[in-house]
Amino acid sequence: MTHPFNASSNLHCPGPDTRRGFMKMGLAGFATLSLPGLLRLRAASPAAADSNKTAVIMIWKPGGCSHIDTYDPKPDATSEYRGPFGTISTAVPGMRFSELLPMQAKIADKITVLRSMRHGSPGHPAGTMRMLSGDPDTRDKTKPSLPDWMSVTNYLRSHDAVRTNPLPAYVGISPPTSYNGPAYLGEAYSPFSVTGDPNNPKFEVPNIGLSNPNEVKHLSRRASLRQNLDTLERAFDQAGELEALDEFETQAMTLLTNPKTREAFDLSREEDRTRDRYGRNSWGQQLLMARRLVEAGVEVLTTSLRGPLCGRVSNWDDHAVNHHVFDALRFRSRAYDQAVSALIEDIHERGLDKRVLVVATGEFGRTPKINYQPSTGAGNASAPAGTKQPGRDHWVRAFSNVWAGGGIDAGGFIGTTDKRGEDSIERICREGDFLATIYQHLGVDWANTTIRDFNGRPTPIVERGKPIPELIG
Questions:
Q1: Backbone Cα Rg of the chain
Q2: Residue (of 135, 61, 101) closest to 307 by Cα position
Q3: pLDDT tens digits for 99-122?
């Protein structure tokens, strides 16, 4: 049973941790990497060549997005709940969004909004783990105890037939990195991570598609030398670790030396009007790169919409102490609306809408009732310290996420919340349903798949839940 969460507006919540645990692949030290080092390159391994394989792009909004001010407005609620934004009609009769989302409103026939998500983990760590791995623990932990669905998929894909696609199966472009990860699967199944701002003219992805033939030859000679030295040790390799070492090294070599990898990440190959369409900012270019990568064969793509475009505290955690919640939503809404609508339109126009599922969500919603607290600092979307401003706190009893593509019959709402947006009251969906729906699209047998944990116990990848029928193509 889900219990209500009564957020304390007197406590400063710093929001999601911004630490970055990104994979580093150094060319200089490549040939001398240890086995654990090469295991970390596992995410860069070629895994499945079929260009018709299904894929998922997950757009993560760290901190939690207000459902009332976006996809589930309550214009008839009292002012202490509804907020200042009006509602607008969409391409679907009877389906209304907040005025902050005019571009998505125009393509609402390609979008399904699930309004009745609910779970019982009100903290950022526990809420993130709940949504991404199904962990039912309501306590906030520093590290996940269960692997997230992205790492699980990467792990399962690694046991597929050998791929010829040189790209990783799992890529994160500024991925969610706080409170999620591969857990007992090991860092081998973390994403190939792309950091930095892809809108920066000097942006580049290191350690892919070496363009200098001399570097490629030098790298090949070093790898060959190491293989010759390994021959002396193979007779003593009881655990078969050297064979694993060869496999991972080959995979990393493929990523480094195949020129197609560099092409897939290269946004300069897109027309200017396409880049403009997504938005000439970090979020727009992240989503454009995501489309390029799934089109090129990446099967799991995550990207986190955080940083300066969010406002002063760089996330969606719109407590009054962090942001003036309504100024923050105005501040980030154009970049968010433009990037998401461009991605959804683009996958339809390019014939990817059956194969590629797009999901936009955060770990929970925000309190329907507005509260007022003194700001802890001035900045974008926040008044000077000490200024009383409106905010919304964490809310798990009802929140929304957005689904598009995946062959689904889009254009409507799933579920209903009450008149003030406080509780999901129809078609209540939980984290198990969310995960089972994603796995179902990816062709994963979510009902029967288990993975052994650190203690050797077979652990289900979905504990409780089932796919949401309207979200299955």
A1: 23
A2: 61
A3: 999 999 999 999 999 999 999 999
